[in-house]
Amino acid sequence: MADDFRSMINVDRIIHEPARLIIVAILYAVESADFLYLLRETGLTKGNLSSHLSRLEDAGYVDIEKTFHGKVPRTICHLTDSGRAAFDDYRAQLKRAINTMPEEGRAEEGSTLEG
Amino acid sequence: MMKNDIDKVIQRTHRYWYEDGLNEIATGCMFVGCGLLLFMMYSVPPGSLLAPILAIGFVILVAFGGLAVSRAVKAVKNHVTYPRTGYVSYRRPGSNRRRRLIVAGLGITLGMLCIVLSKVHALAWLVSMPMVEGLIVGGMLLYLGYRLGLTRFYVLAFLSALIGVVVALNGFDDALGSAGYFGGMGLVVTASGLFTLRTYLSQSQPPVEE
Q1: Stated pTM of the model
Q2: Fewer CB atoms inside 10 Å of the end CB: C or N, chain A?
Q3: Partners of residue B12 in chain A, C-beta under 8 Å
Q4: What's the rounded Cα separation, in Å, for the pair B88 and A26?
């Protein structure tokens, strides 16, 4: 039990940050999504979103491709295989930690492991 | 960040495909097309040259309708949805064993239910085509509504079953009953899509040139 909690200390900090976690969760559900969609769904500012995407790109978790749709530029982002694997690991760690919580705490804390 | 929130983010992302109602409009139109073709097949006199042409048309519509709907929806989304609220490309559904088992289980259960009900004379009307179609489409809508967290799909599922029951109770011939079911359900789904599209357009801003 303690090991499972201790493993939470070693979670992937790049994914664990709330804004990046939302970005990765969105990209996990799709093949790719553009900057506008991520901006709308995350509620971040353009600068913030750019900075988080750069961080994820540097970690090798996200690929960013700049294309054009007609004359309109479109920035397409998609999760790399290592990004997908890292997110799977992160979710597994989170699930393990929640499952080891006592029953009475699970209803509240189980779904509220704040990042 | 909460674990449940992660699931909600993923669910919301899947739901985006249905947010503008375009998929419902296209699917509804396909249903109406199916209904019209079935009605024409029922109406043409036996031995007419039109009968095999309509039959081939129906098979083509059933076989390639889903693909055509998907392509048409993507093309319209490129002009209407993506410039407003962003572009998303979805992953092709993989071979999920659990999902296949659920679908197979539901199919077998429904098949067995039909066999049992057909043996009970007083309930034999339940096994009519429109009833089965209403339940199958309703079941699919129910599953989608649950998976995506979309309340309007629960309403559509109920309406699908209701239309199936009403048409079955009228005691139409199977072909005419199916035509009635698909025509009616097609109009309902299209209306739901149009209402959703209107809401989406009123809530989302057109792109602004920078």
Answers
A1: 0.80
A2: N
A3: 41
A4: 10
